[in-house]
Amino acid sequence: MAAVNADPEVMRWIRDGSVRDEQQTRGGVQAWESEWESQGFGLFAVEIRSTGELAGFTGLSVPDFLPEVLPAVEVGWRLGRSHWGQGLATEAARAAVRFGFEERGLERIVSITQVGNDGSERIMTKLGMHPVRETVNPTCGRRVRVFELSSDQYVAL
């Protein structure tokens, strides 16, 4: 995961676009692991079945960085660049959404992306999500778009 977080092109759309070093990545992974204990959900490793290679992650988290959408659970993903354009993010995020609605009984799942990140918006649309607001991420000052999917909409897909 440290290699993924160290790639400027991967991190371009994450918060202020800064890359993360191994220590920062380790701290992030520890925080993600504690979310499983406190929330009953979190992030999943995305691995390539044929090789076992770590491609990145997907999963559910509480988007504390954007208080105006709370209470909410966000589906997100981050894959290494060599795994882009293969449908992995959509497949993995779809499984995380299914887990959130079917296993955790969530009523609503959001996804948040910076304006201009068309690739992530395409994935959100494939998940059945629709845009509900545009605002500014207060942690970095960048414009973001919030997409949403309710449990009723999920069932109707």
TrEMBL record:
Protein name as annotated: GNAT family N-acetyltransferase
Gene3D superfamilies: 3.40.630.30
Xref: PROSITE patterns: GNAT
Pfam families per UniProt: Acetyltransf_3
InterPro entries: Acyl_CoA_acyltransferase, GNAT_dom, N-acetyltransferase
The N-acetyltransferase domain, residue ranges: 1-154
Highest taxon above the source species: Bacteria
Record organism: Streptomyces humicola
